From TrEMBL:
This is Phosphoribosyltransferase family protein. Residues 316-441 form the TRSP domain. It comes from Pontibacillus chungwhensis. It comes from the Bacteria. Residues 41-256 form the Orotate phosphoribosyltransferase-like domain.
Amino acid sequence: MMTNHTLTYSKKKVFHYPITDRLQVTVHEESNPFGIDLNQLFNMAARINKNRSFLFVSKVLGKHIPVEPQRALDTGALLAALYQEHLLGIKHPSYSDWVQSVAQHLPTQATTGASQTVLPQSHLFIGFAETATALGHAVFENFQNAHYIHSTREVLESVRPTFEFQEEHSHATDQICYGKRELFENNDPIVLVDDEITTGKTALNIIEALQEAYPRTEYTVLSILDWRTKKHRQQFKELEQRLGIRVRVLSLVSGTIEVNGDPDLTPVKEEVPSIQPEADVRTLKVKPIFPYQSTEYTQSITTSGDVKERSYLSYSGRFGLSSDEQFLLEGAIKRLGTYLSMVRKGKSTLCLGTGEFMYIPMKAASHMGNDVCYQSTTRSPIHAITREGYAVQNAYQYPSPEDASISHYVYNIPYKQYDEIFVFLEHGSRGECYEPLIDELKKTGASVIYLVDFSS
């Protein structure tokens, strides 16, 4: 159900983003139901990708730009409120608080079970790897009578995927979903959660794959940003007609974009102070506090085909999660965050998720006190430029600890910005090569680097 504030917002605005001297993106804003300033949602950067030259770098996602962890969680809550409004025709009582958190950086209390909405029919929420794994989970946590799962790029040994699909514009196109088939073998509505829709091709691909294996009648796509053209929107209508289904698309902001030029990707040598303090590296073994290691999923396959022993968490979202299991997870994360809040000593702290492992670190960071920022490592190669107003000011590159053939990155950590860094490792530090990542983090000037090891 559309509400008045959505229907009456019709003033079209135009924004120009000069990404580099030779690349500009123009945004035509068409819908902004919560009236959020676009500058609060994203900045822009040049992307090192032959399929797409630009990137909307989110300020609320907790990926490439550090964010207050609760603000990132409230972004998911605001998307959940948007879905509730359209599904049930009512506003969530915390709606205005979440708008203020996302749009104005005003703090809110952490989302609790008391504010959850009980869905009239069971739902399955799916977050897209790697960027939207936490966002999807942050949407799901606001509902009862629901399940959550996120896609992954990890290949598990001797485990048949529930389904697979392609993210064609990405640097890593293959997306896999695991989890029990009972989650999919029904006619329950599926809600797909992503941070941005540019053409909608990824959503169309996953709906096609799901409909072929587990047909149903209703899908919803939730996203922070939606830039589909009329042609792209028509493709959604054609899919609905061809498959006999209904597909809703809901977003915090929608419009269209124009891209002019190509980026100048001349490498920029980053200046690092010649004298770097030697960080104290400490390992924190948190299994006694967070006892949810999987016994079913224990091996993965690298891109070279090698089988590797690996620790996974049952409740990360990668293998499926129910509302009841989320309640148990919430308690464990709060205990973890409280413990880490007692460990931290610095005035300024960074909590760093790793790859797809985003939600649990983000949620734990929200329980660690003031002056805590959160972001994650990533596989996305982004061109860094030290220039005021550009989205990615610096970059740290290192080989993936799990697969040295894959490069990973950390962005936007100024020298001496943080006293201490907590690095959250789902797979643990045993048997993985984290030295390159640690060496890069030492360049940030942090005095202490904690490795939060979930495997032991």
